[in-house]
Amino acid sequence: xxxxxxxxxxxxxxxxxxxxxxxxxxxxxxxxxxxxxxxxxxxxxxxxxxxxxxxxxxxxxxxxxxxxxxxxxxxxxxxxxxxxxxxxxxxxxxxxxxxxxxxxxxxxxxxxxxxxxxxxxxxxxxxxxxxxxxxxxxxxxxxxxxxxxxxxxxxxxxxxxxxxxxxxxxxxxxxxxxxxxxxxxxxxxxxxxxxxxxxxxxxxxxxxxxxxxxxxxxxxxxxxxxxxxxxxxxxxxxxxxxxxxxxxxxx
Length: 251
Hints:
Blueprint: H1 4-9, H2 11-18, H3 26-38, E1 43-46, H4 53-60, E2 64-69, H5 72-81, E3 88-91, E4 102-107, H6 117-129, E5 131-142, E6 155-162, E7 165-176, E8 181-192, E9 198-207, H7 211-220, E10 225-229, H8 234-237, E11 243-249
Parallel strand pairs: 1-2, 1-4, 2-3, 4-5
Antiparallel strand pairs: 5-11, 6-7, 7-8, 8-9, 10-11
Helix pairs in contact: 3-4
């Protein structure tokens, strides 16, 4: 699982780095909207809502949205950003969250990649439990076939400036070909004005998958059909094929 304490501690700067400083994901939300129209979706559960990039965007498109996340810090940011919108938020684990029957369940921005394969399978089964018959589970995750593109050296992968505060993040990618695990070692520097920079270290491992592996997992854990495209996380990377966008359709 992800380092929940770290996500709590860095929730305030998550949008600055991961969402380009805007806090919104128009490409991803547009892809979700297209999928939802095709499958007659109205009620949506985002079970890894983070700071609300999808919950807010989908609510503004007219969907009835509920959000949950394991990080209380992330939820606090999402609630603040969602003021005036009819979105309910809950502190819950994606493997066990149970909030009713929805038309769609989502877990975006590689949240599912933090899980081991057994926990991933448990989460897929739990998504199915939260869906009506014919409902859809949508998630994105790194494509194992594309991991050869990972730089073999440390890079500056994000530079932001907000007011008088500068943010710089260094990332080193370590990929294990035999296991499909991608470890990211990061150092984030935050400098306010001319003060001494604060350094925030982080290291986490993500599991990557082939499209065929995702299809097998979905079909074995509560879904009748699966569709896999290369349109995952285009808001962040802008590279089609780097991340899968997976859709499981419940019988």
